[in-house]
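#structure-requests
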Amino acid sequence: MNAVRTTLASLLALGAGPVLANAPAPAFDWAGLLPMVVIFVLFYFMLIRPQMKRAKEHKQMIDALQVGDEVVTGGGVLGKVTKVADAYVTLEIAKDTRIVVQRSSIQTVLPKGSIASV
């Protein structure tokens, strides 16, 4: 064991240390970055893109609301649209019973006559 220590000490004394210190750095390993790129691509196509598509469809539905449409709110209230404003919609949920809700709280536009069948 002493012989190994002596040999290492003599190599360092002879200049082997600075030669190793001046060795070129290893090249960047792109294979280590590949799994993160693959995960990001999967997240984009499986989570982010479908959510953006649903949000775009919901915005188009909200923008197309008209008086007379039958809708369901996020809270599950069914009603007929009686007035449309910039940010709010007035719904008739029963005869002579109206509520005002935010446009963004409208979940679904139902086919005509759906409320009568409920």
